Description:
Strand content: 5-15%
Shape: elongated
Strand order of the largest sheet: 1-2
Distance between the termini: 66 Å
Radius of gyration: 25 Å
Order of helices and strands: EEHHH
Number of helices: 3
Amino acid sequence: MIKTQSRRTKSQTPARVRSRKVIVDFPAALYEETQKAVVELSVKRSAFIRDAVRQYLVRLERQKLARELAEGYRANAELSQRVSDEFKYVDAENI
């Protein structure tokens, strides 16, 4: 379960960057692993979790792009093969 709450400091105006407080339930084992990593890396838990979420979102975006590229390659495979076949003799002339 995830809950969010707006959080602003006095120096921030509504038009500026806002942060959100998120409450997340962790299974005990995951919490303990997280705490251990935070201590070993000497970082704050919030920063650690924010970084993990950022990295996960980047990975998701890369996976999405890879799927889209693969679909595009498959969709154009026949055309690519025809173009390649048309130019195979031209390539051989330069040998």
